[in-house]
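To: structure subgroup
Subject: Chain for Friday's discussion

All,

I'm putting the inputs and outputs inline so they're searchable in the archive.
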Amino acid sequence: MGSNNQNSEESSFYAQRRLFLLVNIRNERNIHSDNSLTRAQGYSALSSAYHTIYTGASTEFGKIFKPWWLLWLAPIRVALWCVTWFPLGIWCYLRALPLSNKVVCLIGYGSMSIGMCNTRQSILFDRSKYKEARKCLIAGLTKNPEKAYTRGIFYVLLADASKKYDPYDACLLVRMALEEAREAEVEEDSSQATYICYRCAILSDFFDINNGHRLRLSTKTLQ
């Protein structure tokens, strides 16, 4: 119960507005530094926070229509969302990608950390920029992520970004992601393996690999 309340507080509009203010204050010096890497780190931190905020705004909009017995309050809740979450969310959405692009311009994918690559691929996926997301994910994998979960999620996301351009390689990437999910289940947290299996199940249906149903069963077992 306490954990749920804490998560609710952290995702509240006031908490996200506070995050917006703090991340801008903390990175003001970094983005004006003469050092390219320091500036890139500042831009990446801003884009990461902005991604968190606009994702939160989208999530909160979806909550407006739940539960169904409170639908009669939806007009009021929409109005409140429009004067709170919408301005903050749309600002962060419009700024996140340009800031992420500055990171690439300053230091290139070769000098970006795994965390920077992870933030950028999330922003690119949100805008359906799959070709650029592929470059970002490949760059992240070349840095040999330490955790099996990180490798697995990068593989499955790379498969998702590649499915329209290179279906054969995408199929192979799904299988590689599943291998990492098995390792993550043993070494780390089963919930992380569950998420990878879930994404693989969706892609398996897309490729008609005939094991999407089996993967969903595996996901339920892990849960």
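Points worth raising on Friday:
Residues 145-223 form one domain.
Residues 74 and 84 are 15 Å apart (CA to CA).

D.
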